[in-house]
Specification:
81% helix, mainly alpha, 147 residues
């Protein structure tokens, strides 16, 4: 058995933990940027509404402001919801891809730690019993068939 195996496994696990931490931080950063942009857009919208109110010159123009403001606010909320949905989808996809890559790198590091000795089982062979439920399709449940 390789004397360096424990330290190599520890390094591989530590690297995986750091990669996952980095992915979580990147995801948080994307969310923070999106929320800052939404906040800035909201402030700009409010400023333009204040300016519209200040520039209203007669009662008729003032009377139409509440309905205009309501319509713009509703449309703005729909736009915000769509933007948040897009950020969520992109962030989740980036996180999943990064996690997939980190796990592949970890698996490669662990396989290298065990070495290419033909006497030693491969990484996949060592963990086959734990990976089996996720790699083989579940069989259909057995029971009475409905008529």
């Amino acid at each position: 058995m390789n004397n360096e195996l424990p330290i190599q496994l520890y390094k591989a696990n530590a690297e995986l933990q750091l990669q996952v931490t980095r992915l979580l931080q990147e995801s948080s950063h994307h969310w923070l940027e999106a929320m800052q942009q939404l906040s800035a857009d909201g402030m700009q919208e409010t400023t333009s509404r204040i300016q519209g109110l200040q520039q209203a010159g007669d009662w008729q123009e003032l009377a139409t402001l509440p309905s205009d403001v309501f319509r713009h606010l509703c449309q703005g909320r729909v736009d915000n919801a769509q933007a948040v949905g897009q950020v969520a989808a992109k962030s989740q996809a980036a996180f999943a891809n990064g996690l997939r890559q980190a796990l592949a790198t970890w698996q490669e590091s662990v396989s290298e730690a065990f070495g290419s000795n033909t006497e030693m089982p491969t990484f996949a062979q060592l963990y086959q019993q734990w990976a089996q439920p996720w790699t083989t399709p579940a069989s259909a449940p057995k029971g009475k068939a409905k008529k």
